[in-house]
Write a structure and sequence with these properties.
With about 240 residues, the protein is an alpha+beta fold. Helices cover about 25% and strands about 50% of the residues.
Length: about 240
């Protein structure tokens, strides 16, 4: 097992990417938006935000351009998602890479958002093979590690895996047999599963953050899929209430 203690396992799902220079990149992006507004105003874009680990993506179109600010029209749900971190990823097939725009102002009534300070971006979120969902509150869990019982905590989970925070990082690094015991609420009932698990990477001390990959049985996959889907619905419902 190779440790990766320098890696930030809770990093943002995207990061700024400089191609020429910050100023040149922004000028190139604004030039593209201006050309679209002038010659192809109906071309759609997609906005992407991540709210509580869940991707929220909806169509957007250019409404107006004022200097270095571009006003887009989108839907109320996307406006609510953008409001959480005051920036959004702009995607379209004709863009050579993702574009990150920062909020100048939001107009929830007319479903408009003004963006500026544009840059290119690398998206890390799309590299995940399963969508994570953030739990309402951190969940205490037990692990069976080579027959020994260890404790940990998780803050988010996907059908593929989770990150366990535990002081028992040394034992996990040496382990041959790991199972994560989950007790999850669904429709006021407790769903239980003991999921065969493999340690992928670990960092931190004395509380270690351990990235775990599930090696499901058909039953554990069914149980976790029910919970993850329910949590996705709860997050979307919560975001709609912010509209």
């Amino acid at each position: 097992m190779v440790s990766q203690r320098g890696e930030n396992m809770n990093s943002r799902p995207y990061s700024e990417k400089i191609i020429a220079s910050k100023e040149d990149d922004e000028a190139a992006i604004l030039s593209i938006f201006t050309d679209i507004k002038t010659n192809r105003p109906n071309i759609p874009f997609s906005f992407l935000n991540v709210y509580k680990e869940l991707p929220v993506s909806n169509d957007a179109s250019i409404f107006d351009i004022k200097g270095k600010s571009v006003e887009f029209k989108t839907c109320a749900l996307q406006i609510a998602a953008i409001h959480q971190n005051m920036e959004t990823l702009i995607q379209a097939p004709f863009l050579n890479t993702n574009v990150l725009g920062r909020v100048v102002y939001l107009d929830s009534i007319h479903q408009l958002v003004s963006l500026s300070d544009f840059s290119y971006a690398d998206v890390h979120f799309n590299k995940r093979s399963a969508v994570r969902v953030r739990l309402k509150t951190p969940l205490n869990v037990n692990l069976s590690v080579d027959g020994n019982r260890l404790s940990g905590m998780i803050r988010d989970i996907s059908l593929q895996g989770c990150c366990v925070t535990t002081p028992a990082g040394a034992q996990l690094e040496k382990a041959h047999d790991i199972a994560l015991h989950l007790k999850l609420m669904h429709d006021n009932k407790i769903l239980e599963a003991s999921v065969p698990t493999r340690l992928i990477r670990i960092h931190g001390a004395p509380m270690y953050n351990c990235a775990m990959m599930f090696e499901h049985t058909s039953e554990t996959e069914r149980v976790l899929a029910i919970f993850v889907y329910q949590r996705q619905l709860e997050i979307i419902r919560e975001l709609k209430e912010k509209c």
